[in-house]
Sequence to fold (106 residues):
Amino acid sequence: MNFFDLVSDYVKRVPLGRVSTYGQIAALAGSPRSARAVGWALHRLPTEKLRYVPWHRVVNREGRVSTTCLEHTGFDQVRLLKKEGIRVKYIDGNYFVDLRKYLWEP
Fold:
């Protein structure tokens, strides 16, 4: 399996109502210093895979929604997280998830 496939596989394991971080997924995929590459892998997911890979459950190490993708915006991510019962706070122009409450511990 290549890195992108590993990222998809581990993101699929994040349960409903929980989040993971880019760094956490990178470490699980065997490349702990590749958090940015996780973001790139999720960005590159084909449209048909977006239904099966819960990309919206991945946030940065601060719990911040940090996507800059124009096709799947931060607002889209927040909407999907809220739909799963995850509380998202808006602070100083950014959206945050409380990692103490919602972080997935594999």
